[in-house]
Amino acid sequence: MRLWVCIALLSTVLCASADRPRIVEGIIRARQFVWDAARGAHDMFRAYKDMREANYKGADKYFHARGNYDAARRGPGGAWAARVISDARENWQSGVSGRGAEDTRLDQEANAWGRSGGDPNRYRPKGLPSKY
Asked: Known PROSITE patterns for this protein (predicted)?
């Protein structure tokens, strides 16, 4: 009887400490990537919403950097979402907006700065309410 109890306990310990199969690890990583991407997209939307609400001249670069910064802090999925959203927005705006290639280049610089972990306050204009 004691032998069987020892075997059962040993089996439980070995099974509990065994590594997960690779497929399970891949699924967990994929789920986390998607979750981070969704939360990163939400961060980008929040920065856009704040930019529209503030309606402050010269603050767009700050909000670009802040949205990308917040999204990238979520992890690889958030950084991916920030890059995709920023590139899509700039590609769309470059055809619609009359601001030109220079403004698009500066927006992309602010996007990259935020995604790389740079402080968004580098682009914060003087006088922008502290709420943002």
From this structure: SAA
Instruction: Report the phi/psi class of residue 58: left, alpha or beta, with left for phi > 0 and alpha for psi in -120 to 50.
Output: left
Task: Kindly compute the dihedral angle of the four CA atoms of residues 71, 75, 79, 85, in this order, to the nearest 10 degrees.
Answer: -50
Q: Which has the closest alpha carbon to 60: 111, 3, 129?
A: 111
Which residues of the chain fall short of a pLDDT of 50? none
Residue 119 placed within a domain: yes
- Number of domains within the chain: 1
Spatial distance between the Cα atoms of 129 and 59, rounded to a whole number of angstroms: 11
Domain with 90 in it: what CATH number? 1.10.132.110
Cβ–Cβ under 8 Å, residues 122 and 107: no
Does some domain include residue 16?
Answer: no
Q: What is the pLDDT of residues 34-60, one digit of tens each?
A: 999 999 999 999 999 999 999 999 999
Q: Please indicate, yes or no, if residue 22 is contained in any of the structural domains.
A: no
DSSP H or E segment with residue 93: helix 76-96
Any domain includes 50? yes
